[in-house]
Amino acid sequence: MDGIINVLKPPGMSSHQVVTYLRRLLKIRRIGHGGTLDPGASGVLPILVGSATRLSGFLLDYDKTYVTELTLGIATSSQDASGQTTLLNTDFTLTPRELADVLATFQGPLWQTPPMASAVRVGGKRLYELERQGKTVARPRRQVHVHSINIMAIWHEGETLGFGTRVLLRISCSKGTYIRTLCHDIGEKLGVGAHMSFLSRVKSGPFHSEQAYTLEELTALVEQENFEFLLPMQQALPNWVQVKVHPLVEERIKNGNYILPEHLLDVPSTLTVGEDVVLLSLDGQLLALAEIKKTDRLICQPFRVFMK
Fold first, then answer.
1. Of these residues, 38, 80, 185, 266, which one is catalytic?
2. Which of 52, 111, 170, 177 registers the highest number of CB atoms within 10 A of its CB?
3. How many other C-beta atoms can be found within 10 angstroms of the C-beta atom of residue 254?
4. Could you tell me the domains of the chain?
5. Would you state the pLDDT for residue 120?
């Protein structure tokens, strides 16, 4: 069994626990995920089954979209609702315009310091392991990119924003962006303190929450021996040129040997040197990932073979 499952992870489960659950459900050992979600968060968690685990690096690189709730006036040690309160600010007022102006400053490239409650390794140990030991260490900053921040709703009393105001945001960002840190930093720039009180990932690359399956839905389908939820591996690479190849050259591909452009069928565009392509069999099975190269002639060189 090879393919991708677009899972809607529930809050309260770690990404690893979801993987463990599906290993038992599908009775397959070779399963991984395409991007960690915090245990308290919900949303899209692409699960890679069988040979699809070899695509994990590509999924990790995709941009993400989140819906998050920002609560004003309370900062926490973990930057989300699970931590201890480090700041309680009950005496402030802000206007929606002041909030919008500050949010605008967090769009574009910015530097973040990973929170202690994260899986980043420092000195060979994950930060969350050190945090559980009560340790705080210096963390290197990293640059991320926030493409957009949009206010979806504001829950507050009166015309101004004060203590306990909750703001629902939709955030599109690059890989490696910590939304909890973004919420914390927004609170600091507003001068009132804030934390992330809710998080759901609604999009991870080509995978959307609208098409995701809950664990309950997956369990029911497997019990019916219905595996319609298993997506073809090539759906992880929607922006790559995808071409079918002549059956007579499949053995060459299996052995990692190059093939020629005339062996490609239904090429949707002009192939250029350096371009990556997905090679498919006539029935749509993923055979290999390849690169168009120039030697004494144009060739298509496989660099990751999936044929068994």
1. 38
2. 52
3. 15
4. 3-62+205-233 (3.30.2350.10), 64-201 (3.30.2350.10), 240-305 (2.30.130.10)
5. 66
